[in-house]
Design a protein that fits this description.
about 10% strand, about 35% helix, Rossmann fold, two-stranded antiparallel sheet, single chain, about 240 residues, alpha/beta, five-stranded parallel β-sheet
Amino acid sequence: MTAAYEESDSAPEAVLFDYSGTLFDDTSVLTPDRLAAQCAARGRQLTLHQAAELVTAVQLTVDSAEGRARRAEADLSPALHRGAWTELARTAPGSDALIADAFYACVTAVRAWRPYPDTGPVLTALRRAGTPVAVVSNTGWDIRGSFAAAGLAGLVSAFVLSCELGTQKPDPAIFLAACDRLGVAPGRALMVGDDPDKDGAAAAVGLAVRILPADRSLGRPRGLASALPLRASRSHRLRFRSR
């Protein structure tokens, strides 16, 4: 269920959004059925139980302290990203090179990433109000395809991706680059994200910052309207429709 929104009188001149965990769900990209399908496409048959065990093993490996350290700069280029993530996935218990390749195909698949229910309505409200939007993401691949698949590409004025810029949040340069592409001074822009350290760093160069709650899941609104100067439009207030 979604609601329509409109901009309030105190709106910023531009809004910068994080991608993963802010506009698009990051909790259901790697699933047993998707991993099994990618392995099957590579000639390896897995039961869903085997795939589930591998999903758990890979996630524990990449999210371990060592895993986080090894992929700390992986978002600086596509080559670094693929190399770091597939190598980590390969070293997970029960994994190998084929499974690692299938894992990487899962997490970078265009249609595996789904927008939260309020992403479209909020981006639409900003576009109708003439407020330009930039997506500022630490990512190792081109995420534009996921926006296109969801019908949202036309609502984003600029994509500022770490793997294309060669720098990543919390480096102030990435926020300044986004503001420059939108033609707005940092002090007139708002950054919305889910990471207090990486996204919150935008405050150092003058942007207002809104950090979303950590609790999130697919199918539930992300709370984007509450982080922005938006209100339910009068014609739709308290009237929700199926998406």
